[in-house]
Design goal:
- By secondary structure, this protein is an alpha+beta fold.
- The chain contains 28 helices and 27 strands.
- Helix 14 (429-477) runs antiparallel to helix 15, helix 26 runs antiparallel to helix 27 (900-915) and helix 27 runs antiparallel to helix 28.
- The radius of gyration is 58 Å and the shape is elongated.
């Protein structure tokens, strides 16, 4: 029972325990269910949250990627050794490369060649310094070859104190770089411009510290330091350097302070410095949005401008005063010649009031019909804007006319359009009347001069014709074995005739010189022989008198010289003859020495010294004047007073100078200098004057026709020809000479010029122009005229030579020998220049180089000859300075083609034209050289053809 009870109790306890356990288990199950339910809800929420977070993260990443891809900057990563690991897609848009073209390549691969090293150095410095952020700019070559400037900010990424990568943000800065370069270029240009300005420039900040100055600013204010050293200085420091150079420091400072205070531009303020110079100051404030950023000062030196302006002002005042006091009438007209204004002087000049003139047509009212074309032509010039001067007549109110000189100038408005013209009128009526009177007087003077010339020619002929017979017969009388008394009478007769001949020759020589009708004939001659010949002549003349005559020659005077030996002989003869006239006893010394020698050109100084009576000092200035005799007393000192005047003219014609030194009782020394050229060839020895009777000719000339109307001259010439064994025929006039020439052949014709019935010129032309046996026979002119134009006329008429009466036997004999049959010229009677060229000179110049010689000859013919022909026009224009210049230019060209004699003549033209010694003679020389040059052209062309042949 107990067991059952116990079992029951145990069972009850177990049942109670089980029910309790089940209740607990159920409670726990409920709790577990509740927990599971809550856990299930929690898991569901967690998954949703995780999903939401992942979605948010993806959206954020998408936004960041879109942000990175949307910005213009390039974002890239590179490894510490410089290789790309990432680059944003913007790089393709900017540089043209895709991402995969960057990744794996070194950063320097895309950089311009000159910047590769600098970039590598930059990355090394970043790794070494480990700055969190740095900035660097470099040029990148794009895929299409352009250059793009990139500015990059680089950051380093570290882990465990090691740099694992570098991240950079880069952007295109090309525009800024270009702008900076342009700005830098502009700054350089601006600095250069300011430095080279003709003004001093000073640029200051607002607080007056110097930003920029140029060198001229320092020069104007006497600042000793350079313009660069002024940069950064304040104005007080600048004042200390300048030291107050202005003449009014207080006023200058006050004006400066006022300008700075008002901050308004000011131009053209004059500032005077202590050194007397004047500056013009310009001030320009530098403003932006109403704020002053600085000050620009500019200083220009206007000293010269002010001086010029003051000079112009004074000149204007001067000429305004002159115009007010001069008799000038001013008239203003419009483009249609309608009078706009007439000034007082013009109204008085023309006789009208101004109100009567204004509005009237000037041409219709004032200008005579015959002068309308002149006015129209001038109006055309005014329309072209050209001023001009011209002369015309104007009609006064009372109907009378006046001559006026008009200076017309165009008038323009402010836009440059011509609105009219102004005429300045000067009354020429009185001058025109005077010109007419002078023209009449000149016409009368020309007629008188022509009459004088004709008178001299007639007197020359009338005196020389009988004088020729007197001198000739006196020579012949010596051959008749006269007694001593007869010989004395003949000598007196001959001396008187020679004296008369000298007087006539002097008068005619001076006439020829004054008329410019004497020419320099340059040719090679023996200078030393000429001087000794002069000595020999005067030795014979001085026989029996206590006077010695000596010649002193420079040892360098040897060989031939080129010059006018005839003129030199006349000069020496005049001077020695003058010394003979005034020397009773003692000596006469002729000397020559070379003063200067340049190449072949020699300046030779000649002197003639005597121990005569001398010349008073106060009369030395008269010795070279015409018709002046210093010692007119005494029978021995008779003469025209022209000898030394002629000598001076002859020296100056050749480009030389002459002077005299003298002392009374001690004698005189005449010194002259002449230019000569050394000759490359030697001339034949000068013949000794024939003073003794001429022996019978060793040659036979044949038959000579003497055409002479004067009986005495017929007798004289006939006697000489008989004496020399020459047969001749006489013809008393030109007509009979023509008839005789038709019937007989002669070897030579001596033709007088002035004859009755038919003169020598006409007879020569007839003989030359008609078929007869003597058409080409040499004809020698015999004339009592020594005028150059008569000689030229004779040569132009066809004569071959010219012999002036009176002549002595040796002169006629020399001509006869020159024209012997064996030496007769060709049918062409004129041989103007030497028949050949200076071959020795050409050989020395060119040698075997024929091409150069040919080129020179062609150049001379094509270019130099036209220049030579310009000399005539220049002489007509009386432009002697241009003649001298052209002569100097052309002179050396003659020797290049072998015309060395013409080179000497051109040198004479140059000297005479540059010295203005005798301009009329220069014209004669120019005509002569043009003539000879043109005559030489065929010879030069022929030689050119020879040179051109292979």
């Amino acid at each position: 029972m107990d067991d059952i009870e116990l079992l029951k109790r145990r069972l009850a306890r177990e049942q109670a325990a089980r029910r309790q356990a089940e209740a607990i288990l159920e409670q726990k199950a409920l709790e577990l269910y509740d927990v599971n339910t809550r856990l299930q809800h929690l898991n569901e929420n967690l998954e949703l949250e995780i999903q939401n977070k992942l979605t948010e993260l993806q959206e954020s990443e998408q936004r960041h990627r879109q942000l990175i891809e949307s910005i213009e900057d390039i974002i890239y990563k590179i490894s510490p050794d410089g290789y790309f690991t990432y680059i944003s897609p913007v790089a393709e848009k900017l540089l043209g490369y895709k991402e995969h073209e960057f990744v794996g390549k070194h950063a320097s691969y895309f950089v311009e060649q000159g910047y590769k090293g600098a970039l590598i150095t930059y990355y090394q410095r970043v790794l070494e310094e480990r700055k969190s952020s740095t900035y660097y700019e470099l040029p990148i070559l794009t895929k299409d070859g352009r250059t793009v400037w990139i500015g990059q900010t680089v950051r380093i990424i570290e882990q465990n104190n090691e740099v694992v990568e570098m991240v950079a943000v880069a952007r295109d800065v090309t525009a800024r770089k270009t702008a900076e370069l342009a700005l830098q270029t502009t700054q350089i240009q601006l600095t250069a411009l300011i430095s080279s300005l003709q003004s001093g420039v000073l640029l200051e900040t607002q607080d007056r510290r110097i930003i920029l100055a140029n060198g001229l600013f320092c020069d104007l204010f006497g600042i000793s330091v350079s313009a660069q050293q002024l940069t950064g200085l304040c104005h007080t420091e600048l004042d200390a350097l300048t030291g107050n150079p202005v003449d009014d420091p207080q006023g200058f400072k006050a004006r400066t302070d006022a300008l700075l205070a008002c901050r308004q531009a000011s131009v053209g303020t004059e500032i005077r410095l202590n050194n007397g110079r004047i500056l013009e100051q310009d001030y320009i404030p530098i403003l932006m949005d109403g704020m002053c950023l600085g000050h620009l000062w500019q200083y220009t030196d206007v000293t010269k401008k002010n001086t010029t302006r003051e000079r112009i002002r004074r000149s204007e005042e001067k000429y305004r005063g002159i115009m007010n006091n001069m008799e000038l009438g001013l008239l203003e007209v419009d483009n249609d010649q309608t009078i706009l204004r007439a000034y007082d002087r013009f109204c008085k000049m023309i006789g009208y009031r101004e109100d009567e003139l204004v509005g009237q047509n000037a041409a219709n009212m004032l200008v005579p019909p015959e002068f309308i074309p002149v006015l129209s032509e001038q109006q055309q010039q005014r329309r072209l804007g050209t001023a001009g001067s011209y002369e015309l007549q104007l009609m006064r109110k009372d109907g009378s006319r006046i001559w006026v000189l008009v200076s017309g100038v165009p008038i323009q408005d402010e836009h440059g359009a011509q609105v009219g013209s102004m005429g300045i009128h000067y009354d020429l009526t009185a001058r025109k009347q005077l010109e007419q009177e002078l023209a009449t007087a000149k016409h009368l003077a020309d007629e008188a001069r022509q009459a004088e010339k004709q008178f001299l020619a007639n007197m020359s002929h009338e005196i020389r014709t009988p004088l020729n017979a007197i001198i000739g017969m006196s020579h012949l009388l010596f051959d008749t074995r006269p007694t001593a008394q007869q010989q004395e009478y003949i000598e007196i007769l001959q001396t008187s005739a020679d004296f008369l001949h000298s007087l006539i020759s002097d008068l005619l020589d001076m006439t020829k010189i004054e008329a410019g009708r004497i020419e320099v004939q340059s040719r090679p001659f023996d200078l030393a022989g000429l001087m000794r010949g002069t000595q020999k002549v005067f030795e014979m003349k001085l026989q029996g008198r206590p006077i010695n005559i000596d010649v002193m020659l420079d040892a360098r005077i040897n060989g031939d010289f080129i010059g006018d030996d005839v003129m030199l002989n006349q000069i020496l003869t005049n001077l020695v003859g003058n010394a003979d006239k005034f020397t009773e006893e003692g000596s006469i010394q002729i000397s020559a020495r070379i003063r200067k020698e340049e190449q072949n050109q020699c300046w030779i100084e000649f002197s003639v010294a005597d121990t005569g009576v001398g010349i008073p000092t106060e009369k030395l200035g008269l010795v070279f004047q015409k018709f002046k005799q210093v010692n007119p007393q005494g029978h021995k000192h008779k003469g025209t007073g022209l000898g030394l005047a002629i000598t001076k003219e002859l020296v100056e014609i050749q480009g030389g100078t002459i002077q005299v030194k003298s002392r009374v009782g001690e004698g005189s020394v005449f010194t002259f200098i002449l230019p000569f050229t050394r000759s490359a060839t030697q001339s034949a020895p000068a013949p000794v004057p024939v003073l003794s009777p001429v022996p019978m000719m060793e040659w036979r000339l044949g038959h000579v026709l003497v055409v002479e109307d004067n009986t005495m001259n017929q007798k004289y010439i006939g006697s000489l020809l008989n004496k020399w064994g020459i047969s001749y025929t006489l013809a008393p006039d030109g007509m009979q000479a023509i008839e005789v020439c038709r019937q007989h052949k002669f070897d030579l014709i001596l033709m007088d010029i002035q004859m009755p019935v038919l003169d020598g010129y006409e007879a020569t032309v007839a003989i030359r122009s008609t078929r007869n046996p003597n058409q080409h026979v040499p004809i020698i002119a015999l004339t009592a005229s020594a005028m150059l134009d008569h000689k030229n006329i004779a040569l132009a008429a066809g004569m071959d030579d010219f012999l002036t009466k009176p002549f002595d036997p040796p002169k006629l004999l020399a001509l006869l020998r020159q024209y012997t049959p064996a030496e007769l010229p060709d049918a062409n009677p004129s041989v103007p220049i030497d028949s050949g060229l200076d071959w020795r000179h050409l050989h020395d110049m060119y040698g075997p180089d024929l091409s150069t010689a040919s080129e020179m000859f062609e150049l001379f013919l094509n270019e130099i000859v036209p220049e030579i022909n310009r000399l005539n026009d220049l002489c007509t224009e009386r432009n002697w300075a241009e003649v001298a210049r052209l002569a100097h230019k052309l002179k050396p060209t003659f020797s290049m083609v072998g015309l060395t004699e013409l080179e000497t003549k051109m040198a004479q033209i140059e000297r005479s034209a540059s010295q203005n010694s005798n301009n009329e003679l220069v014209a004669v020389y120019c005509n002569d050289i043009i003539k000879h040059t043109n005559e030489a052209i065929p010879l030069l062309k022929n030689e050119l053809q020879k040179l051109a042949q292979p």
